Amino acid sequence: MTHLASEPTRATGEDARSSAHPLLRTEGLTKDYPGIRALSEMNFELRSGEVHILFGENGAGKSTLISMLAGANHPTSGKILFDGEEVHLGSVHEARDLGISAVFQEFSLIPQMTVAENMFLGAEPTQAGFLRSKEQKRKAEEILKSLDFHLKPGRRVDHLTRAEQQMVEIAKAFRTDPSVLILDEPTASLTNHETEQLFKLVNKLKQRGVGIIYITHRMAEIREIGDRITILRDGRYIDTVDAKTTSEDRLVELMTGRVVGQIFPAVAYSPGETILEVEDLHTPGAGGLNGASAVVRRGEIVGFAGLVGSGKSKFAQACFGSFPIESGHIRFKGQTVLSPKTREMLKRGFMYLPSDRRSDGLMMMRPARENISLASLMNSPLSNGLFLNIKAENRVTSDLADRLNLSPRRIERLAGQFSGGNQQKLMLARSLTREFDLIVFDEPTVGVDVGTRAAIYEFIAELCENGAAILLISSDLPEILHLTNRAYVLYKGEVQAEFAGDDITEANVLAHFFEREEV
Known about the structure:
By secondary structure, the protein is α/β, with parallel strands linked by helices. The chain has 18 helices and 22 strands.
């Protein structure tokens, strides 16, 4: 059990960072998979009381490194030293017992179990072989309270929002008292308030001498909490630099091996015919839509902004047919759609790319080829109406893998074996297998690096300029400000405001993130 207010038991501050040996160190750590070296002779060190950022493009080796440090994977060669002594981590439980806890980007929760049951899975308090459920609930309440996470231990995980599930993952790491905490994109699903609470926690842990390995692609987070940054590229160590003094341009140059210019492209908008017209849309349940209306035209990028749970994703899901509708009017390409169904909407030319690529967007145990071609199996040239043309499928998917710089460019590799950014590319490639009139990008850059992010923006801009209607749903405000020519702001299922052109400013958009009475 972690008591954040307790007196430090480890070296703190400058004393910790200047200790005789690092808290955690790797020497020549290497990981090979069939046909590929994911990490090559990695030398890395973590000091007590520091936040050490791992920085690199998707596929650079960050996830491979932390998976071995957390006991979830085993190195092909090299050493891991903890507190000066070599250790062999056989499992996540062994690492956690040693004092190394990890919060991975991809959740490992059991939906049908409660918050408390997930937090103590595999380490349940027992007596004489029987579960002590009251003690488990009490301990869970103490941890959640210490983290200032407003969750009830008895709630089932499948009833939680994605942000709340992220909190459960973080809370799991604190059922023991960690010496090393690994956080992999922990703020991707959190609101601003929840992110602030996490950063307060990080600072408390630093004062106690806990060493923190932190993976993020957000420059603001690096500046706010980072001490040192280690950059990886193509599975190799590149450099370790100071987080406070190293410029953003220098970090991007180290990460990519090239100087990256303006991340947001100039988009040539040419609004034409109305593709999607929605009036007074209502959906069932808490967090649903409460009379939302919007219009999306060909040749423009329309943004949907708002807090987590504002209903911006449910709007697109309802129009696409993947979420039920209570009432409202939907017109697609001038035709009324009474009860949208995903198969029918795809045939009509509507493509929706979801925010959760692992759960909703991809078939993780199927090859990249099948994931790319999934939405166009009944269309030429992939099909002649009766049978799938395997040669055409291979040719089309291989060409798209080359176009989007999929790494590695192996279309028979399982989707689950690619990095997060390359999984995102698989979903993007799906929208190029045929012409779509409307493409919805729901949080398209969650968990992707700067280089991939820039490529995705160019990709979206190109689709818009070629005449597609684009709906961009994003919690990343700069994406709304720099990519869209019109933007809607949603709050509690209602459209609070619509802005166009130069009126799409940070002040205008943020002013409508909350109830109108508060503006």
